[in-house]
Design goal:
Blueprint (H helix, E strand, L loop, with lengths): L9 H5 L2 H23 L4 H27 L17 H4 L4 H7 L1
Helix pairs in contact: 2-3
């Protein structure tokens, strides 16, 4: 049983993002399919539902990923060592574009 107030490691929290994206696309597609059956508007309900599900899923994926990138690494088991604030994060690839926001 996990301790109260303690969150699981970052990789555990981020591991479900792919399933969340797939579920949002599937949910939007099912809702669009149902609307198509009720309004006889095939295939537009399905197309619009799948598109809205994809956009909503990508929004959630990006929102959670950016939030996880900005929070400090907990140094949990199995993950990479946390980057040093002094220079390692600023020297590496795409994270250098976010370094100015941390300063």
């Amino acid at each position: 049983m996990p301790r109260e107030g303690r969150q699981p490691p970052k990789w555990v929290r981020l591991s479900s993002l792919g399933m969340e994206l797939a579920a949002s696309v599937a949910g939007g597609s099912l809702l669009g399919w149902w609307i198509d059956g009720r309004l006889r508007s095939e295939p537009w309900g399905l197309v619009i539902g799948a598109t809205l599900g994809f956009v909503g899923g990508m929004y959630n994926l990006l929102r959670v990923s950016i939030r996880a990138f900005h929070e400090p690494d907990d140094g949990g088991e199995g993950g990479p060592a946390p980057a040093q604030e002094s220079g390692q994060a600023r020297r590496c690839g795409w994270s250098a574009s976010w370094a100015w926001r941390r300063a």
